[in-house]
Amino acid sequence: MSTPAVIVLDFETTGHSPNRGDRPIEVGAVRIEHDRIVDRFQALMNPGFTISWFIERLTGISNDLIAHAPPCEEVMNRFADWMGDLPLVAHNAGFDRAFLDAELALIGRHQSNPMACTVLASRRLFPESPNHKLATLVNHLGIFTDGTFHRALADAEMTGHVWIAMTDVLCDRYGLDEIPFTLMQELGRIGRAKVDRYLRNLADRQKTCLGDSGIHSR
């Protein structure tokens, strides 16, 4: 099975929207190649103002911790260099994309990496899950966890394992030999009733192409 290398990322933030002045306080990310986590990135960052008691309680990230952390601008420069131009993955990707783009704009950088959402894709591949929150999916899929959530690297790693589980399903259930990143993006846009037929037709097309080229899948 051929799958693209991706960066799976997660932000912990001071609130819900950069348009309201909220900023990241932690970024965590993993690089996945050939269905394995091969590298990690994690950093706390100082947003330049005090964070609320609610965020402290939710994340366990205190004002004392971020007081000694580097500023957002420094961390985001390092993170942008680390992720390069690889495709991006996040759980509830619109949230993380908004903060990523806002922070990059503040330091005069722009990266147009394509992005896929594991919430949207998991709704199509795991409709039987009670819901599609990260903790629920991790439990539903039997992914090992130490119980840590709402910390950026832990959430990025768990999202990475959900991503790997989704590519495994596409391979095992549908016999796909190649899983392009655009397919993972498209899953979130296809109506639930049409997903199975769409994927079976794609698998048939791949087999036809392999047969025409004289290449046989393992």
UniProtKB/TrEMBL annotation:
<keyword id="KW-0808">Transferase</keyword>
<dbReference type="InterPro" id="IPR013520">
    <property type="entry name" value="Ribonucl_H"/>
</dbReference>
<comment type="function">
    <text>DNA polymerase III is a complex, multichain enzyme responsible for most of the replicative synthesis in bacteria. The epsilon subunit contain the editing function and is a proofreading 3'-5' exonuclease.</text>
</comment>
<dbReference type="InterPro" id="IPR036397">
    <property type="entry name" value="RNaseH_sf"/>
</dbReference>
<dbReference type="GO" id="GO:0008408">
    <property type="term" value="F:3'-5' exonuclease activity"/>
</dbReference>
<keyword id="KW-0548">Nucleotidyltransferase</keyword>
<dbReference type="Pfam" id="PF00929">
    <property type="entry name" value="RNase_T"/>
</dbReference>
<dbReference type="GO" id="GO:0003887">
    <property type="term" value="F:DNA-directed DNA polymerase activity"/>
</dbReference>
<feature type="domain" description="Exonuclease">
    <location>
        <begin position="5"/>
        <end position="172"/>
    </location>
</feature>
<dbReference type="InterPro" id="IPR012337">
    <property type="entry name" value="RNaseH-like_sf"/>
</dbReference>
<dbReference type="GO" id="GO:0003677">
    <property type="term" value="F:DNA binding"/>
</dbReference>
<dbReference type="GO" id="GO:0005829">
    <property type="term" value="C:cytosol"/>
</dbReference>
<comment type="subunit">
    <text>DNA polymerase III contains a core (composed of alpha, epsilon and theta chains) that associates with a tau subunit. This core dimerizes to form the POLIII' complex. PolIII' associates with the gamma complex (composed of gamma, delta, delta', psi and chi chains) and with the beta chain to form the complete DNA polymerase III complex.</text>
</comment>
<dbReference type="GO" id="GO:0045004">
    <property type="term" value="P:DNA replication proofreading"/>
</dbReference>
<dbReference type="InterPro" id="IPR006054">
    <property type="entry name" value="DnaQ"/>
</dbReference>
<protein>
    <submittedName>
        <fullName>DNA polymerase III, epsilon subunit</fullName>
        <ecNumber>2.7.7.7</ecNumber>
    </submittedName>
</protein>
